[in-house]
Amino acid sequence: MSDISRRKADHLDLAAHGDVAFHETTTLLECVRLVHHALPDLAFTELDTSANVLGKTLRAPLLIAAMTGGTDRAKQINKELASIAEERGYAFGLGSQRAMQKSRAALASYAVRDVAPTALILGNVGVVQARRASTAELEDLVGSVGADALCVHLNPAMELIQSEGDRDFTGGTETLARLVSELSVPVIAKETGCGLSPSVLKQLKSIGVAHVDVSGAGGTSWVGVETRRAEGARKQLGEVFWEWGVPTAASVAYAARCGFSTVFATGGIRNGLDVAKSLALGAHAAGIARHALVALEGGGRAGALEYLAGVELQLKTAMLLTSQRCSEGLRHADRVVTGELESWLAQL
């Protein structure tokens, strides 16, 4: 097994079964209170959860978010979850395609178009790897999996904990600007569990990035994942920075302020109420990763479908109880922001 494949296998095991959640940091979605509307004048059957995202209509504003690739087990997981995304009308995000850049033999673990011919599929590459690749090479990476857009992930904190991780993060802004200008599909700037701050969001906006995935703090700590794999000084470093990051709710609100065309709220999204709160903060769709994986691992396809159907039911309930006929309306629903989130939004 290659180093990348071994790392991907470790990531899957830890994400599904390990103690890798933030210990103290939360998404701060608990600081968002949607205001109850006791006279909604709506029938539950007339609620419309559909959403237009990156040129495609989703049945609900949900993304089964990027997790894996590069191993046989990853192939099975990607196929199953992508087929569920197709069946349910969600978007689907591939894990980092770095393994494909190393060897095209890994393509099979990312190829999901046969089971998801119409779903919104998001490709995925690290900004450091994108810097080293030509636009033509990345165009081929996108085309080989039939992706509708390319996530370029930013993960310096995670890389610094990996003993084999990247250390040179120069040229990231220039790389994103190049891809926005030259790539044939939309580019999504994506964090990996540490969130996007106002200064970074403004920087992204200034170079033409129109789509972001905040992947904020409060769910799985990918610093924590790497800490579980690390030894010695790297393990100690990870323990110190385990809680590092901008909480998901704050990142979503910051991104909404900047007026991005698409804002994905990922990072610790657990249920339909979290989705509704994310939309109320300005997201266009919300991504679920670990909880979808755990449902699949624990109950197979039926377990994942039951979990996701529950998320939709919870979202629709929040819509009715805030008197919003469509999911888009939640972006304008009455809400109250309290506690620590109020401080994040006031100070930055």
The helix fraction, in percent, is 40-55%
Give the CATH H-level superfamily.
Aldolase class I
Q: Beta fraction of the residues?
A: 5-15%
- What is the terminal separation in angstroms? 45 Å
Kindly state the number of beta strands: 12
Tally of alpha and pi helices: 14
Rg for CA atoms: 19 Å
| Residue-averaged pLDDT | 95
How does the major sheet shape up? 8 strands, parallel, barrel
Structural class: alpha/beta
Tell me the name of the CATH class: Alpha Beta
Succession of helices and strands: HEEEEHEHEHHEHHEHEHHHEHEHEH
Strand order of the largest sheet: 4-5-6-7-8-9-10-11
Q: How does CATH name the architecture?
A: Alpha-Beta Barrel
What is the overall shape? globular
Number of domains: 1
Task: Indicate the CATH topology.
Answer: TIM Barrel
Poorly predicted segments: none
Describe the structure.
Helix 3 links the parallel strand 5 (91-93) and strand 6 (120-126). The chain is built from 14 helices and 12 strands. It has a single domain, classed as Aldolase class I (TIM Barrel, Alpha-Beta Barrel). It has helices spanning 3-17, 72-88, 98-102, 127-132, 135-145, 156-161, 172-182, 198-206, 222-229, 232-241, 248-258, 272-281, 290-321, 339-347, and strands spanning 32-34, 51-53, 56-58, 62-64, 91-93, 120-126, 149-154, 187-191, 211-213, 262-265, 285-288, 335-337. The longest helix has 32 residues, at 290-321.
Task: Give a short overview.
This protein has about 350 residues and is α/β, with parallel strands linked by helices. It is built from 14 helices and 12 strands.
